[in-house]
Amino acid sequence: MTPETDQTRAGFVAVIGAPNAGKSTLVNRLVGQKVAIVTQKVQTTRFPVRGIAMHNDAQIVLLDTPGIFKTKRRLDRAMVKAALAGAEDADVILHVIDATGWVAEILKRPLTGAQKKSMDDDRRVMEDLKTLGRKGILALNKIDEFDHLEILPVIQKLNEEGIYSEIFPISAANGDGTASLLDHLASLVPESPYLYDAEQTADLPMRLLASEVTREKLMLRLHQELPYQLMVDTETWEERKDGSVKIQQAVIIGRENHKSMVLGKGGQTIKEIGKRAREELEGMLDRKVHLFLFVKVDERWMEKRDFYTPLGLDFDV
Ligand SMILES: Nc1nc2c(ncn2[C@@H]2O[C@H](COP(=O)(O)OP(=O)(O)OP(=O)(O)O)[C@@H](O)[C@H]2O)c(=O)[nH]1
Ligand SMILES: [Mg+2]
User: Fold this and answer.
1) If you measure from the C-alpha of residue 144 to the centroid of ligand 1, how many angstroms do you get, rounded to a whole number?
2) How many A from CA of 7 to the centre of ligand 2?
3) Please, is 243 exposed, middle or buried when counting C-beta atoms within 10 Å of its C-beta (0-12, 13-18, 19+)?
4) Which of 28, 175, 196, 293 has minimal Cβ neighbours within 10 Å of its Cβ?
5) What pLDDT, in 10s, does the model give residues 233-285?
């Protein structure tokens, strides 16, 4: 009855993979805008974030998920559980792998500890895919790191796993190969009316996105265990008459002795972090932002249900 060409398509693509594979970078690239934070550290993404890409009359809702890895802490278990639940419910599963370790292995070059760990996590995701009984799309990421020909044997090897219907060598960082990937994803989501406004690029409350921006700046600036033991809570958001917005955020840390590291000498560190976060927020909101950060110690924040539920994480894992 209705001509096929009039039909729009829409659906969910779960982006899963080992920590640091480049999932959030890829989601931002496909959406064409920053919706998820990115750092060089593992376990940056803590909860699923929806980024929305419009392409060829298709609305592709990309679910950026936390990295899948071997876990101990409650927060880690909740993160991994959320990632896998996202995959189960999605129309398409997109597995992102950092190809650098796989290329090194095939070329018999020495692997770094981080590469070995990341490949173990890749294998874990492959096992999960087999358990789910679903075929995935594989995005072999970071091909800007080596000669393009070196990727061919890796594609062949991973193809032999029998769990991927398609393999795309890409660079999420510079966009190589991502256009064909997007074409393919657009063709895979089912015929459906759009699920979101055609202009919307993210499904994340602004307050939460603001907390994420500050957390990214903290992670980029602070080192060792500290970034994994902190969270940011946007406590107040006040629209002002002059069009600006006043945002107050608590940086919550697990230990009193971390305070001095977050603050820095004479408060220099937190001041610099606040400046970076404010600049980015002003760009995102397109207006003046007054950002106030303060540090709170709460040794038990990671063990509190109140933290998990609003993020869609399961406390009882
Ligand atoms: N060279 C290179 N680096 C990349 C590429 N994609 C991502 N990266 C880098 O890899 C690191 C991790 O990127 P993220 O996007 O945060 O990775 P993720 O998979 O979301 O990580 P988690 O949220 O921790 O699971 C960052 O330093 C990125 O800049 C790429 O195509 N090439
Ligand atoms: Mg991420």
Assistant:
1) 12
2) 33
3) exposed
4) 175
5) 999 999 999 999 999 999 999 999 999 999 999 999 999 999 999 999 999 99
